[in-house]
Structures are given as structure tokens and as C-alpha cells.
């Protein structure tokens, strides 16, 4: 399998058969019945001739009898010489006339028989010539049929769906957890094979990235996995931010529990946090900020925070004296209490950092046991901190770093906009997956230079909105493989992530102390000016060697997916159990883009729409990563395949098996000349003479 271009994604595979089924083989032509002289007609002609010649034969016999009688009577003297002469002469004349007539009739009959034999011979020769032409036409049709059959059986049936270059974002609406797992594995595995970096923010609480992690390990990649909020102490994302950036991040995190369209308290919260961070100094962390908010709001015992080293007595006094106890200041104190009640869930962030080895795959996921508020706060913190990390990074080639946000509908609209803008400005690819299409998602779906993919939409309103956006005039074909495998793979909700940040980091720290000192805090994320950034330490090295490495890795990507992921194993099992599935010869059904059809899509099916050179394209794709391991799959797109020059297909020697008649014969074109039967009876020569 060849490697796709570095800036083009593989979103799945499109099922298509460019070479149609040629149908049954041509039937061999059946030679017509050979023409021959009709013996019944010949016998009839002979009987007719005999009937016509019967009076002549009687006259000839009587004439001969008269001649003999005249000679005999003349010899015995009964007749004189004159009478004998008249009798002989008369009989001879009658015999001559009747004999000549009989001879002429026989000659006419033989001529007619010869003409009939000649006609039958010419007709037989024409039939043989036509039969030879049919056989030659049949041989040509058999060769063409075999060529078409070979092309049909050996053609690729799964073509990569890769949007054109210049795409900056992919929006996936709808889908199940298993469908997301297929989509994530398909897209991210090919990005890793191309030498790119992948960052996954899994906010779905369904462990969607397990298949991708299993694949990465088969390729020799040790991914870093944080399960939050348990792994917040070892999370390096968001650490080392400048004071204003930290205030911005925390104020946006607090807004996560507000209404989607509300920005009422954002500037107010930001001002309070900036003042608190100014008091704490440039070394402020999330934990020290929450301690400062507690001191400002007079929540809890401030001596505990001082004893823990989060703040000092001087800082506590400055915070207490920052605001008075007037009515307006009381509002500030109450708001500080609200800020502390939410930010305390992030207090452990970055408090126990360990050295982390460089890796191209990083997964940060919200655990299944996180509460509702914890999930919103942690998810927003990941998205906002990643946005700031991207802003401090150098621009890279398109899609060299790819960010996946699964469950992006849980984020506010302004948070999504900031993340999308940061990715666009740095060349970072962004894939946003939404379980539902609420109003703030519907307004942003497909905005800008983006690809939109629709997976199964169970909600009626979401399905109706998607069908209206796609257009109901499109007709798609669902492969049997798509439906069969989709029913066999269950959701990943029953599985959980296993954290690797702590154990891997401790091993790396004990192995190399110089690595930790080089990265400052021991984090695997480096950026400009020592500030944390989104790039693992190996990214600069990967950008140089990734191109030479991508070809060899992409050659084994399908093998890794087929042996390590649920989708790959299930697909291999399905294709091994059924020959029709192995070659993907069968299509399951056709459907139009309608509301109820979008609610019944197979779990890995995805309808993709994007702007191409030929206008808006709408494609039905299967995100099953195991399809890439089939012999009938190719990384070429269907358009690229159709643009290839047509190569001649080897034509095997024709066999002697029976085939249907040529199309021209079956359709009533060139038919053998009809048998008109014997010619009409010849005319009586006596009537012609008269």
C-alpha cells in the first residue's frame, strides 16, 4: 500500500465497481440446418413427369406395334407393299414424335434437378460462410467477455476517500462510540504512518481511542495516555503558562458551566484572576490560584494553604486587603467563591510532573467515573490549554500535527472557535466529532474550508437537519461488508483506558536525568522560549525523517490494524468466513439521503461532503480501518483510478466451451437466409408450345 500525500487525509473507503459485471459468457452459435435437395420434391417432380409422359409413351408403344405389325403382315402377304410402307412410315413418324417428346421432357427434368442442386449448393455455401462469420464474431465476443471478466474480478472495489489538499478541518456529526473508534483509527493510523504527530482529546468517556493505541503499539510506538481527572498531577498540558495566559485559560474554564451563548462574566472573571495571579507572581499554578481565591473569598482555613506551600502569608495578606467589604467588593468576593468552587477541580494539574519520553501519539481522556461538572471543567481545560499551546508553537506543514477532539459538542462555541483558529494559523489539522448537533454546533458545522462527515444520527431533528444539508437527491450503495462488520463490532463503552503517563514517565526519568533537565519541567511538550508547546520533543526529528519513514510504515499499516484492533480482527474474520465478503462482490442495498436512512446507517458508514475542483462532492464512505487490509482496497481515490489510462487486459485463448449466440444474432440482426423450399412446378412444355 502506497503512502498518501502528507497533507491529505484518508477518511475511509468508498465502495465502487468501475468495471461492471459482464454477466454470463456468450453462447456459442448453433449452426442452422444444412440445405439439401429435397427427395420428396424430386420424387414429386418425377411423378409429375411420368404423368405428363404417359400418353406419349402409350403413343410410342402403339406406333412401334403398328410398325412391327405392318412389317409382319406385309411379310405374310396380308398387306401389299404400299399398305405396308404406309403403316411402317406412319408408325415410325408417331414413334419418333412421341419419343422426341419423352426425351425432351426427361432433359427438362434433369436440367431442373441440376438447377435445384446448384441452388441448394449455393445456399449451403452461404450458410457455411455465415456460420464462419458467426464463429469469428463469437470468438471475438468471448475474448472481450473474458477480458471484462478478468477486469471485473481483479479490480479494486474499495477506494480511499481523501479530500483535496487545502482542507483545514474535519467535522464529524453523529455516530456511535464504535463508529468513532473506526474513524479515529482510520484517520490517525495513516497520519502516524506518514510521520505526523497525533493528539487526541477524548471527551466522550467511552474509551474511543483503544483501537488506535493498540495499533500504535504494534508499530513500535509507545503512546502517552492520561486518564483525567486521576492523572491531572502528571498532565503537562497547560503548565508554565504566562500570567495573562493562565488567567485567560482559567476564566474560560469557569465559563464551561455557563450557558452556551453567555459571556456575561467572562471579563469579570478574567480581571479577578489576573489580579490574583499578579499577587502570586510568575510561578503561579492552578493550585496556588485556587488557594488565592480561597483566601480572597475567606473559604476554609488559609493556614492550611500556607502550610502546604501554595501561598505565603504575605500573599494571603495582600489578597485579603485587595478588596474591601463594600457592596461592590462583596460581589467580587462572592464571585471568587464561585471561581474557586470550579477551579479546585483542576488544582492538582501539573503538581507531580515526571519526565516523559517523546512520542508521536498522545491521548488525554476524561475517565468514565468523572462527574458531570468534572467532565465539563476538565474537557474545557484541555481544549483551552491546547489552544494556548498551539498559539505558542511554530507553524508546521499542513496536517503534520493532527488534533482530534471527540465529544466536541460538550465545549462552548467560543472555545471551539478559538481552537479552530489556533489550528488554522499553525497548520495543525483538526478533527471535531460531535455526538449531537445542538444549535451552537449547527452554526459552525462545515464553516470555512472544512470537510463534513455525517455518521448515524439517532435524533430525529439532527437527522432532518443533516438530510437538508446534504440534499435528498443523492443515492448511495451500502456494501454487504459494511453492514456485516458493523453489526459484529460492539461499542467500546465497556472498556476503559489504562494510564501510561505515570509509569512510562517514571521509567524515562530514571533512565535519563539529562532529558528532564533539558525540558525544564520534565514534560514532553516543548515550545518557543521555554514555554510549553504542543510538539513532542521528537517532532523536529520526525519532520526530517518522517517522509523516508512513511513508506515503510504504510506498507505494514494494514497488517497492524488487522491484527491489533477490533475492527481489523472482525473484518478479517468476516472476509475469511465468506468468499463474497472477501472479494466484496456484493452490494447490500441502495438508499436516498433521507431522515430515516440517516438514523439507520451502519456504525462505520459516513456520508462525506466537501468542496472539490468539480464542485461540491458527496461521497458514501466506510471508516472501517480493517478494509485497508483487503486485497480489493487501494489508497487511490476513485477519481484517480478513473483518470488512469486504460491498460489492455491479457486475453486468454478461447476454449471449446458452449457460449450464448452473438448479440446481433440474439437481437434479430444477421440471420441465416430462410429456406424457401423447392421451386414451383415446371410448366408443361406442351402448353408453352401452344
Count all strands and give the number.
Answer: 16
For the sheet with most strands, the description reads: 9 strands, mixed
- Secondary structure: helix percent: 40-55%
Structural class label:
alpha/beta
Approximate shape: rod-shaped
> Strand sequence of the main sheet, in spatial order?
5-6-4-7-8-3-9-14-15
Q: Could you tell me how far the N terminus lies from the C terminus, measured between alpha carbons in angstroms?
A: 95 Å
Rg over CA atoms: 48 Å
What is the typical, i.e. mean, pLDDT? 78
Number of helices: 25
List low-pLDDT spans.
Answer: 504-554, 651-678, 682-690
What is the strand content? 5-15%
Describe the structure.
With about 700 residues, the protein is an alpha/beta fold. Among the domains are: about 10-155 and about 635-690, no CATH class; about 245-345. It has 25 helices and 16 strands. The strands form 4 sheets. Strands 5-6-4-7-8-3-9-14-15 form a 9-stranded mixed beta sheet, sandwiched between helices. A 3-stranded mixed beta sheet has the order 1-2-16, with no helix packed on it. Strand 11 and strand 12 (about 535) form a beta hairpin. The longest helix is centred in the first third of the chain and has 74 residues, at about 80-155. The model is unreliable at about 505-555, about 650-680 and about 680-690 (pLDDT under 50).
Amino acid at each position: 500500500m502506497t503512502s498518501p500525500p502528507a497533507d491529505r487525509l484518508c477518511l475511509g473507503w468508498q465502495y465502487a465497481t468501475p468495471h461492471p459485471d459482464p454477466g454470463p459468457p456468450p453462447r456459442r452459435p448453433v449452426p442452422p440446418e444444412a440445405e439439401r435437395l429435397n427427395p420428396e420434391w424430386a420424387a414429386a417432380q418425377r411423378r409429375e413427369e411420368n404423368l405428363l409422359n404417359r400418353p406419349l409413351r402409350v403413343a410410342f408403344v402403339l406406333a412401334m406395334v403398328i410398325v412391327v405389325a405392318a412389317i409382319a403382315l406385309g411379310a405374310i402377304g396380308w398387306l401389299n407393299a404400299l399398305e405396308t410402307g404406309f403403316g411402317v412410315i406412319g408408325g415410325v413418324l408417331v414413334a419418333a414424335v412421341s419419343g422426341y417428346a419423352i426425351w425432351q421432357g426427361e432433359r427438362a427434368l434433369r436440367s431442373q434437378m441440376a438447377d435445384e442442386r446448384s441452388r441448394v449448393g449455393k445456399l449451403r455455401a452461404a450458410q457455411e460462410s455465415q456460420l464462419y462469420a458467426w464463429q469469428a464474431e463469437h470468438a471475438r465476443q468471448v475474448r472481450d467477455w473474458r477480458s471484462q471478466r478478468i477486469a471485473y474480478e481483479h479490480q479494486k472495489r474499495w477506494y480511499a476517500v481523501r479530500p483535496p489538499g487545502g482542507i483545514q478541518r474535519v467535522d464529524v456529526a453523529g455516530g456511535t462510540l464504535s463508529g468513532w473508534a473506526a474513524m479515529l483509527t482510520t484517520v490517525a493510523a495513516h497520519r502516524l504512518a506518514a510521520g505526523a504527530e497525533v493528539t487526541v482529546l477524548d471527551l466522550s468517556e467511552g474509551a474511543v481511542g483503544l483501537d488506535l493505541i493498540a495499533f500504535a503499539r504494534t508499530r513500535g510506538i509507545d503512546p502517552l495516555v492520561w486518564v483525567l481527572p486521576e492523572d491531572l498531577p502528571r498532565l503537562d498540558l497547560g503548565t508554565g503558562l504566562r500570567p495573562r495566559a493562565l488567567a485567560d485559560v482559567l476564566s474560560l474554564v469557569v465559563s464551561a458551566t455557563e450557558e452556551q451563548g453567555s459571556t456575561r462574566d467572562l471579563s469579570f472573571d478574567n480581571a479577578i484572576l489576573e489580579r490574583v495571579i499578579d499577587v502570586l507572581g510568575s510561578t503561579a499554578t492552578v493550585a496556588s490560584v485556587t488557594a488565592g481565591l480561597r483566601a480572597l473569598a475567606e473559604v476554609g482555613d488559609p493556614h492550611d494553604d500556607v502550610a502546604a506551600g501554595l501561598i505565603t502569608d504575605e500573599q494571603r495578606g495582600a489578597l485579603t486587603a485587595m478588596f474591601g467589604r463594600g457592596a461592590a467588593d462583596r460581589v467580587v468576593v462572592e464571585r471568587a467563591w464561585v471561581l474557586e468552587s470550579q477551579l479546585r477541580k483542576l488544582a492538582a494539574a501539573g503538581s507531580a510532573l515526571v519526565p516523559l519520553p517523546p512520542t508521536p501519539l498522545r491521548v488525554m481522556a476524561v475517565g468514565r467515573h468523572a462527574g458531570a461538572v468534572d467532565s465539563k471543567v476538565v474537557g474545557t481545560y484541555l481544549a483551552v490549554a491546547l489552544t494556548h499551546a498551539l498559539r505558542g508553537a511554530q507553524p508546521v506543514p499542513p496536517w503534520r500535527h493532527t488534533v482530534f477532539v471527540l465529544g466536541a459538542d460538550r465545549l462552548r462555541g467560543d472555545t471551539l472557535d478559538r481552537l479552530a483558529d489556533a489550528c488554522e494559523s499553525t497548520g495543525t489539522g483538526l478533527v471535531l466529532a460531535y455526538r449531537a448537533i445542538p444549535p451552537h454546533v449547527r452554526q459552525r458545522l462545515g464553516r470555512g474550508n472544512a470537510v463534513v462527515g455525517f455518521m448515524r444520527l439517532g435524533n430525529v431533528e439532527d437527522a432532518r437537519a443533516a438530510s437538508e444539508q446534504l440534499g435528498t437527491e443523492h443515492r448511495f450503495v451500502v456494501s454487504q461488508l459494511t453492514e456485516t462488520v458493523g453489526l459484529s463490532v460492539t461499542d467500546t463503552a465497556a472498556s476503559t483506558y489504562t494510564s501510561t503517563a505515570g509509569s512510562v514517565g517514571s521509567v524515562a526519568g530514571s533512565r535519563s536525568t539529562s532529558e528532564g533537565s533539558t525540558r525544564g519541567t520534565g514534560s514532553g511538550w516543548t515550545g518557543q522560549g521555554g514555554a510549553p508547546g504542543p510538539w513532542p520533543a521528537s517532532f523536529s526529528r520526525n519532520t526530517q525523517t518522517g517522509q523516508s519513514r512513511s513508506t515503510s510504515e504504510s506498507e505494514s499499516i494494514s497488517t497492524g490494524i488487522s491484527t491489533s484492533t477490533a475492527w481489523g480482527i472482525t473484518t478479517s474474520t468476516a472476509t475469511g468466513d465468506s468468499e463474497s465478503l472477501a472479494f466484496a462482490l456484493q452490494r447490500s442495498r441502495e438508499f436516498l439521503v433521507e431522515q430515516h436512512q440517516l438514523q439507520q446507517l451502519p456504525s462505520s458508514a459516513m456520508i462525506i461532503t466537501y468542496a472539490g475542483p468539480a464542485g461540491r462532492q458527496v461521497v458514501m464512505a466506510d471508516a472501517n480501518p480493517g478494509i485497508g487490509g483487503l486485497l480489493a482496497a487501494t489508497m487511490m481515490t476513485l477519481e484517480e483510478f478513473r483518470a488512469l489510462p486504460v491498460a489492455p487486459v491479457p486475453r486468454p485463448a478461447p476454449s471449446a466451451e458452449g457460449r450464448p449466440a452473438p448479440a446481433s444474432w440474439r437481437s434479430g440482426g444477421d440471420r441465416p437466409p430462410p429456406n424457401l423450399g423447392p421451386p414451383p412446378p415446371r410448366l408443361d412444355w406442351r402448353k408453352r408450345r401452344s
